[in-house]
Amino acid sequence: MIEKVIIHKLVDDTTSYSAGTAMFDALDRILSSDNTIHLSLYGVSPMSSSFLNSFFGKLIDKYGIEDVKAKVKLVDYRLAEALRIKDYFERYNSITC
Question: Cα(20)–Cα(92) distance, rounded to whole angstroms?
Answer without folding.
Answer: 16
